Amino acid sequence: MTKSVLALGSNLGDRAGYLRGAVAALDEWLLVVSGVYETPPWPPGAGGPPYLNAVLLVHDASATPRDWLDRARACEERAGRVRDPADRNAPRTLDVDVVAVWTDDDTPVLSDDPELTLPHPRAHLRAFVLRPWIDIQPYARLPGHGPLTDLLRAPEVAADLADVRARGDVELESAQ
Which of 9, 14, 62, 116 sits at a 20 to 30 Å CA gap from 39? Predict the structure, then answer.
């Protein structure tokens, strides 16, 4: 029923290992994985180590958007993610965000549920999501916001893009 774009990020511990763990956990649904990028902590000026980021395109004929959220949270839990309710941008072992979901006929799924807002309400402002996503879907459009290439040229995103550094030395391979 759905395909989804999932954004991965890690800035604590074995960052590449946590990303690899998420890819392995999602492997049966994995269509393609982006390259890995290193970025400063978010928001700009926040403390903490740099992030490793990647994006996955996944598909499951029987999955609902909620299933993708549950799978994302299960990956985070396996990585020992601890959420700090007082600081939603706190460093973390693994963050897996459901960025966007489509039905099999490519209709975007829209949701204003506070637990799963679709598309992700800040994805259009995040160079660390848009840049890896372009690796795997160069002509993609973020529902409600337009082509990724246009979003990357927006001044607020273009300014952050300069700090997004490709990490060709870190590979995330699926078992497929």
Answer: 116
CB atoms within 10 A of CB 166: 13
**Cβ partners under 8 Å of residue 64, min gap 6:** 1, 2
Structural domain contains residue 71 = yes
Question: In CATH, what number is assigned to the domain containing residue 62?
Answer: 3.30.70.560
- pLDDT tens per residue across span 139-167: 999 999 999 999 999 999 999 999 999 99
CA–CA separation, 158 and 169 (whole Å): 24
Whether 174 is covered by a domain: the verdict is no
Query: Is 124 in a helix, a strand, or coil?
Result: helix
Omega within 30 of 0 (cis) for the link into 114:
no
Residue appearing with tokens 């927006």: 154
